[in-house]
Write a structure and sequence with these properties.
About 20% of the residues lie in helices and about 40% in strands. It is of the alpha+beta class. The protein has a single domain (about 15-145), classed as Roll (2,3-Dihydroxybiphenyl 1,2-Dioxygenase, domain 1), CATH 3.10.180.10. Strands 1, 2, 3, 4, 5, 6, 7, 8 and 9 form a 9-stranded mixed β-sheet that branches. A hairpin with a 5-residue loop joins strand 8 and strand 9 (about 140-145). The protein is globular, with a radius of gyration of 16 Å.
Length: about 150
């Protein structure tokens, strides 16, 4: 879905977080907390499906998006090539109601689904998928609700 200016329409959901790839959560978190005046509960999730460890920092204002720190968990982690190029700002995440509908929209806009839907440990098993847009932006889509048994 493009606007009259040719720009890609935003996902049909709400902005959830910004992902930032780091070599080590433990060695990086304090600098982020200080820079952003953020808060951290100390929870680090290991997600073997994605071969990463992640944690979330929360701004002091409820309107601020979460910041996700992403650390590779093993030599086969998909974020290692990005980290070898210096790491840093990696992706934007949108929480959406209908994952398959969003993926179809993304494909229609020229996006490439680089990771099909899979459950995410950090989100209680809710599914996520990854899309690389034709504008070279990596988007993560987080399904708002878990799938029911009949789906």
């Amino acid at each position: 879905m493009e606007s009259s200016t040719g720009a890609i329409a935003l996902p049909q959901g709400s902005f959830h977080h910004i992902g930032f790839v780091v070599a080590s959560i433990q060695n990086s978190v304090q600098g982020f907390l200080d820079s952003l005046q953020a808060e951290w509960d100390g929870t680090i999730f290991h997600d073997p499906n994605q071969a990463v460890r992640v944690t979330f920092l929360r701004g002091r204002h409820t309107a601020n998006p979460l910041l996700e720190l992403v650390e590779p968990a093993g030599e086969n982690s998909p974020v290692i090539p990005f980290l070898k190029r210096g790491g840093g700002l990696h992706h934007l995440c949108y929480e959406i109601d209908h994952l398959e509908d969003q993926l179809a929209l993304s494909r229609a806009q020229g996006g490439l689904v680089v990771r099909p839907p899979l459950p995410a440990v950090a989100f209680g098993g809710r599914r996520i998928a990854w899309v690389y847009t034709k504008n070279k932006l990596l988007l993560e889509y987080l399904e708002r609700q878990g799938r029911s048994a009949e789906q």
